[in-house]
Amino acid sequence: MTSRGSSSRNKDHQMADNAGDRGGFRGGFGDRGRGRGRGRGRGRGRGRGARGGKSEDKEWIPVTKLGRLVKDMKIKSLEEIYLYSLPIKESEIIDFFLASEVATAIRGAIILAKLSIVPVRRGYWGNKIGKPHTVPCKVTGRCGSVLVRLIPAPRGTGIVSAPVPKKLLTMAGIDDCYTSARGCTATLGNFAKATFDAISKTYSYLTPDLWKETVFTKSPYQEFTDHLAKTHTRVSVQRDNPDMPPSS
């Protein structure tokens, strides 16, 4: 009886161990989960991290005159770029002044948005106390059948609008605003573009404080001509970037 009982117990233990490897009992599920989780999780995580590190360590080599002036700290703010209406053709220029975004899935949209950035003018409702908080005047934007009108609001009112224009107005730095919309606002694409069109028109209306003549100094391209010709010739850029085609 003793030999039969010990042999049966050993057989049961062996079956349980084999079942655990196959996932037949609770212990098997645990062993199976730990083995796969450790192997796959560590391997994939390290691989992606290594690829991300290489892309982040890549140094920005500007290919436009504006990019060279920005990298050499000759232009110190975005306001200087907009003052002379200089075209921004490199998204790294925006990264140089603002915090960089890290989003792999929407990287193309982020680059396009940085190259399409527009200045937004803000103003007051009533007395000019504190910082500008609303739109400076009534502006209207249109896209398709949708017409959006932005109206200045007193301080503390908030943004009175639908969720789509409210998001855009918040990102534009507007704290208080009334809105009025007409047309098929269910088409959210046209609704958002009409709001963006209205925001971009805030500088189209000249209020009395903008009537005085603006005295322009030399454009950054003219002021730093010697610097661009001396330190950034096309040959030096080709040496740093071999993929660039040779000049004709």
Automatic annotation (TrEMBL):
GO terms for biological process: translation. It comes from the Eukaryota. One of its GO terms (cellular component) is cytosolic small ribosomal subunit. Residues 9-34 have a biased composition (Basic and acidic residues). SUPFAM superfamilies: Ribosomal protein S5 domain 2-like. Gene3D superfamilies: 3.30.160.20, 3.30.230.10. Keywords: Ribonucleoprotein, Ribosomal protein. Residues 35-51 have a biased composition (Basic residues). This is Small ribosomal subunit protein uS5. The lineage of its organism: Eukaryota, Metazoa, Chordata, Craniata, Vertebrata.
